[in-house]
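Can't paste images in this forum, so I'm doing it all in text. The chain is below; anyone willing to post the predicted structure tokens underneath?
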Amino acid sequence: MALAATLVLAGCTSDADQPEDSPSPAPAAVPEEVADGVSTPVEDRVYPDVGDPGVDALHYDLGLDWTPTTRTLDAVETLEFRATTDADSFQLDLAKPLKVAAVTLDGKDAAYDHAGKDLVVQEPVREDGEHTLVIRYAGTPRPVPAPTNRTDFDSTGWTITRDGGVWTMQEPYGAYSWYAVNDQPSDKALYSFTISTPSPGVGIANGRLQSRTQKAGDTVTRWTLDEPASSYLVTIAIGDFTMTEDESSSGVPITYWTDPDQPALLARLHRAPAALDWLEDKLGPFPFDSLGFLVVDSESGMETQTMITLGDTRYATGADTLVHEGAHQWYGDEVTPTDWRDVWMNEGMATFLQGVWTAEDQGTSVDSVFGTWAGYDQQLRTQYGPPADFVPDSFGAGNVYYIPAVMWNELRKRLGDELFWRLVREWPSVHAYGNAGYDDITSWWSEQSGEDLTDFFHDWLLSDETPPTSP
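Text version of the structure:
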């Protein structure tokens, strides 16, 4: 997620450039179990009331029929899932404004309760049993309150525009505002979408557009996302959008979805291929087979997997934001935190790369950028907590962006550019298309660097006090 420009980015330099002879790894192959959507769900340490580790979602097939004049969603959801334990019932997150009409489990009517935000299916399941759940529901979805004090958003999920259009951003949760979901990042799943809405409106989602047809005055689009994604990385938008095609130097197909009445936004997005080229130079081949940029009526930006969602502001569509959200496709999307305690893994590296890009773009020193950011450290720790133990109702504050970004620059100086950049490129493939946490990434860096970095990471990520920085 992009951070609102409350802290001004300073410039930086080529002294952190990737060495020309550093090898870039090939895109990681999707492990067989991951390709099937198999995950190891956990209860979130920060937001334990959202998600249920008893359910491992494998594949969501979402049929969404949106009527903008009545603001009504009619939906049929087919969920293939694995039970992770023996239980007399299981549950998914689903917001109350949506009314469930019917539920079937493995083709038979199922008893259920939907008293609050939880849809509880009152049917027994056994550990490792795989099932098909079909839910028919309808209503007017509403966004849910976000646990944040940021100024660019205060709610997440299904958001309806004045003309009846729709867009979604849902970090750390909020997908449950529009479909039944295990809304916690450790449960990654495959997705397919069929979106129907009156023409000239069009529905947009993650992955590849498989078809776009006209039926009885409606536009029907079908999308598939073939690599597993956490629910917060899913996006939906419905409205009057124009698609423009582009391509990176390496051949990654890129699409832009923009308001046809705002050509300036499209012009700004055409800097995306250069941003992706820069990221591939630093991180290796793009980890997915396509990339899109979707511009909506928002002030924020979100690294939604393969289809980045951006607000329609100069900041949200700026080149540095394109770099930041693009970097998340490796750090956040390819490898995703197991729970929200480790959101710093996403935001710290994306902000570090954004800072290095800004340095090169402005022709100034890398250390001047991170030196400026280091000056914010103690204030951010005092107000919001250390990055890996942040205050829960201050999600997405500057502490999980700037402090770990400075940390990575300190580690670069400690290890040297060649080793540092090699490990930055290698890490996402270690847990490709899966999840990882604090212990995974910190121990891996110690092992691969040949240095015991336990105290280094603890001081930067868990201490209440600012660690010393090198000259």
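The chain has eleven helices and 23 strands. Residues 43-150+161-226 form a domain with the Immunoglobulin-like fold (CATH 2.60.40.1730).
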